[in-house]
């Protein structure tokens, strides 16, 4: 009898230990435990007391209750690439990343089956919808705006009914067709070329203004131009060239010509000949003097020449006279005339 009692006692102790082990649960810090009593977590439309267990050591009734743990950590889920056509009829492929966490574990377990898969499907459909509503420029340059719009669409579906908060949505990559990439590359190259030409033209304009100002300053003091010339010579000679080209200003030649008193130039740099007014006044003065010397002339040849007026005519007559005499001698001149040998030209 004693042996039978010991066996029964041993069986009871082992059974108690098994029941105690099955009733004790440990909830991690990042988890919440949902306890179902006879399959119910709510009673009369309200949450049953003790249905949600906080982190720590807790116990449940082995047969009547069942616990399911829900992680409250932020879950990172990649959205597969979705093909779509933008509002401006450009075919693109866009993939994204969704960050979400459970804020109501009861709704995440009771209202939806496999909430992670559900969030993934909602993100894919919402991503396609956003692609169709945006144009290519927004997808490439205004991603923050697209991210906010996509987050609002997904969060509206998941937060209320499923108890899941969408923390952030990021578009990871936008794939464009090869033809569109080449077109965009040509557009960017043309834009860079336009900006480079504008900058070059602006630099030339500013340089011309500076040069004009420098020329104005140098024109006030000719010595500044000479100093600049000497500085240029020093810079060229520093290159160790075998040939040195030195420009000579025209003003130096004019200075030496005026200093030498050249016949072709006057002191003011003009021609040596007097102007027409001076020549006429001088001619009238000579004519008055000739009239005072002889009031009566025997012939027209006795009229003295007028200096400045008759001098060109006289020269023309002197040139024409030898030509007439030569023609008379060649074409049958007077008998007995001896032809003179013309010097070679």
Indicate the topology:
Layout: H1 2-23, E1 24-27, E2 31-37, E3 42-43, E4 46-47, E5 52-53, E6 56-59, E7 65-71, E8 75-85, E9 91-102, H2 105-110, H3 115-133, H4 136-141, H5 143-162, E10 164-175, H6 178-220, H7 222-237, H8 250-260, H9 276-293, H10 310-330
Antiparallel strand pairs: 1-6, 2-5, 2-7, 3-4, 8-9, 9-10
Number of strands: 10
What is the global morphology? rod-shaped
| SSE succession | HEEEEEEEEEHHHHEHHHHH
Low-confidence stretches: 263-273, 294-300, 319-323, 325-345
The biggest sheet amounts to: 3 strands, antiparallel
Beta-strand content bin = 15-25%
Q: Termini distance?
A: 172 Å
Strand order of the largest sheet: 5-2-7
Helix content: 40-55%
Number of helices: 10
Q: How would you summarize what this structure contains?
A:
The chain has 345 residues and is α+β, with helices and mostly antiparallel strands.
Description:
The protein is α+β, with helices and mostly antiparallel strands. It is 53% helix and 18% strand. The strands form four sheets. Strands 5-2-7 form a three-stranded antiparallel sheet. A three-stranded antiparallel sheet has the order 8-9-10. The protein has a two-stranded antiparallel ribbon with strand order 1-6. A hairpin with a 2-residue loop joins β3 (42-43) and β4 (46-47). α3 packs antiparallel against α5 (143-162) and α6 (178-220) crosses α7 (222-237). The termini are far apart.
């Amino acid at each position: 009898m004693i042996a039978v009692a010991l066996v029964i006692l041993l069986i009871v102790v082992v059974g108690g230990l098994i029941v105690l082990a099955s009733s004790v649960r440990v909830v991690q810090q990042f988890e919440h435990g949902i306890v179902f009593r006879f399959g119910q977590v709510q009673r009369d439309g309200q949450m049953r007391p003790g249905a949600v267990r906080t982190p720590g050591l807790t116990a449940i009734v082995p047969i009547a209750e069942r616990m399911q743990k829900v992680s409250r950590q932020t879950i990172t889920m990649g959205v597969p690439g979705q093909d779509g056509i933008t509002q401006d009829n450009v075919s693109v492929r866009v993939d994204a990343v969704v960050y979400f966490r459970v804020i109501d574990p009861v709704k995440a377990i009771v209202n939806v089956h496999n909430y992670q898969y559900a969030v993934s499907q909602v993100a894919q459909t919402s991503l396609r919808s956003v692609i169709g509503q945006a144009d290519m420029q927004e997808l490439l340059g205004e991603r923050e705006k697209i991210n906010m719009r996509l987050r609002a669409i997904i969060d509206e579906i998941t937060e209320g009914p499923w108890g899941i908060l969408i923390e952030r949505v990021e578009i990871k990559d936008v794939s464009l067709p090869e033809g569109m990439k080449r077109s965009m590359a040509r557009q960017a190259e043309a834009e860079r070329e336009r900006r480079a030409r504008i900058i070059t033209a602006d630099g030339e304009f500013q340089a011309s203004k500076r040069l004009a100002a420098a020329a104005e300053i140098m024109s006030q003091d000719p010595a500044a131009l000479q100093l600049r010339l000497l500085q240029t010579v020093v810079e060229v000679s520093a290159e160790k060239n075998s040939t040195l080209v030195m420009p000579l200003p025209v003003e130096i030649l004019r200075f030496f010509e005026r200093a030498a008193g050249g016949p072709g130039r006057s002191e003011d740099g003009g021609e040596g000949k007097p102007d027409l007014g001076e020549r006429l006044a001088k001619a009238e003065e000579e004519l008055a003097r000739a009239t005072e010397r002889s009031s009566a002339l025997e012939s027209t040849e006795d009229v003295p020449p007028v200096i400045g007026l008759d001098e060109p005519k006289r020269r023309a007559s002197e040139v024409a006279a030898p030509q007439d005499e030569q023609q008379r001698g060649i074409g049958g001149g007077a008998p007995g005339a001896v032809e003179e040998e013309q010097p070679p030209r």
